[in-house]
């Protein structure tokens, strides 16, 4: 009897330990390597030959852990379901991914059912591949993007199949310019339209690292900031310019680091999960 009680106590401690690992005392963010996009023509991003060198783009996924829940931000370029059955990397055209998002999350102690909220910077397919795996989470989305992905003819660079399982998900429509995910100012989604109609960026207030702004596709190359260049496929260039000005002012006000999601040099400097920033 005593041994059974002892085993039960140990089991409870293990379960509590796991719960505590997934509910940190302060906000933390995990950066996952969700692949690469092979270099495309620099003209696509508003540059002339010789102004910048073509380079591969990094594809990140982020998991934000908060004492009150979790947020998944951007979910990759190739779905986990497309990986070879025997293991190994997955490739689709210019896209390549070495590890599944599921396995990277597991290494950090999480699974899809642990995710409270799903949000994506925008509806382009290189940010949405594994969205369906989080159909049990609450989807935070702007109405204009939701309408677009479920339209009879979705916009280009949208993969409608990525969103199919989200049709019946619990959904919160973001109406204001800022949405405070957990109500304490540490995880805030900010509207930054232009690249797509409902494009948004993510602000994190981290206790040790300091404030960070994850920029979605507000920029692709860092030189877009200094040279004032825009991709040729912006939904609305004027909106993008206004969003960039807003973000620049916000960065000055908060002193936040800017993480340009696709910039490979930025990505190479960031520690990857299961390490994290807090």
Figure out the total of helices: 6
User: Whole-Å distance between the termini?
Assistant: 43 Å
Helical coverage, percent range: 10-25%
Unreliable spans are 1-21
Which percent band covers the strand fraction?
15-25%
For the largest beta-sheet, the strand count, sense and barrel status come to: 8 strands, mixed
Oligomeric state:
single chain
Rg, rounded, reads 19 Å
Give average pLDDT, whole number: 92
Question: Got a strand count?
Answer: 13
Q: SSE order in H/E notation?
A: HEEEEEHEEHEEEEEHHEH
What's the arrangement of strands in the largest beta sheet?
4-5-1-2-3-6-7-8
Main structural class: alpha/beta
Q: What is the 3D shape? A: globular
Briefly say what this structure is.
The protein is α/β, with parallel strands linked by helices. The chain has helices at 2-22, 101-107, 143-149, 223-227, 237-254, 264-269, and strands at 28-37, 57-66, 69-75, 90-92, 95-97, 117-119, 138-141, 171-173, 178-180, 187-191, 200-206, 210-214, 257-259.
């Amino acid at each position: 009897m005593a041994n059974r009680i002892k085993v039960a106590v140990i089991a409870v401690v293990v379960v509590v330990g796991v719960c505590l690992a997934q509910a940190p005392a302060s906000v933390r963010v995990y950066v996952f390597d969700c692949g690469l996009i092979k270099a495309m023509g620099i003209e696509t991003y508003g540059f002339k030959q010789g102004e910048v060198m073509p380079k591969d783009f990094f594809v990140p996924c982020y998991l934000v852990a908060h004492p009150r829940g979790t947020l998944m931000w951007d979910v990759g370029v190739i779905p986990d379901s497309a990986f070879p059955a025997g293991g190994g990397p997955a490739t689709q055209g210019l896209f390549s991914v070495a590890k599944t998002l599921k396995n990277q999350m597991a290494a950090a102690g999480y699974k899809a059912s642990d995710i409270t909220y799903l949000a994506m910077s925008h509806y382009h397919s290189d940010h949405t591949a594994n969205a369906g795996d989080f159909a049990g989470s609450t989807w935070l989305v702007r109405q204009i993007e939701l309408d677009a992905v479920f339209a009879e003819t979705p916009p280009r660079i949208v993969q409608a199949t990525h969103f199919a399982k989200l049709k019946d998900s619990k959904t919160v429509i973001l109406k204001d310019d800022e949405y405070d995910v957990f109500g304490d100012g540490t995880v805030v989604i900010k509207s930054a339209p232009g690249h797509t109609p409902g494009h948004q960026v993510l602000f994190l207030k981290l206790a040790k690292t300091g404030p960070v702004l994850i920029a979605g596709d507000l920029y692709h190359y860092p030189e877009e900031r200094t040279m004032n260049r825009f991709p040729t496929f912006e939904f609305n260039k004027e909106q993008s310019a206004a969003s960039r000005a807003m973000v620049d002012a916000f960065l000055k006000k908060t002193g936040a680091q800017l993480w340009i999601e696709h910039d490979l040099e930025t990505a190479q400097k960031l520690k990857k999960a299961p390490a994290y920033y807090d």
